Amino acid sequence: MIFRRRRLWVVLVVVPRMAFLLRLGRPGFLGVFL
């Protein structure tokens, strides 16, 4: 359960950060997913 919780925490932290970097670098690229 600790592993699953850590995994969820990593997803919640890393995904928005990567999305933010993609938004700064490639607005059109992010627009395809969102």
Please tag this protein with its features.
single chain; 34 residues; mainly alpha; 2 helices; 91% helix; rod-shaped
Give me the secondary-structure topology.
Elements: H1 2-25, H2 27-33
Helix pairs in contact: 1-2
Could you walk me through the main structural features you see in this protein, from its secondary elements to its overall organization?
With 34 residues, the chain is mostly helical. It has two helices and no strands. The protein has helices at 2-25, 27-33. Helix 1 crosses helix 2 (27-33). The longest helix has 24 residues, at 2-25. The N and C termini lie far apart (31 Å).
Q: What structural class do helix, strand and pairing data support? A: mainly alpha
Query: Rough shape?
Result: rod-shaped
Measured between the Cα atoms of the first and last residue, the distance is 31 Å
- Total number of helical segments? 2
Alpha carbon gyration radius: 12 Å
H/E series: HH
On the 0 to 100 scale, the average pLDDT is: 74
Tell me the total number of β-strands: 0
- What is the percent of helical residues? over 70%
Low-confidence stretches: none
What does the oligomeric state look like here? single chain
Determine the strand fraction and express it as a percent band: under 5%
Q: How is the biggest beta sheet arranged?
A: none
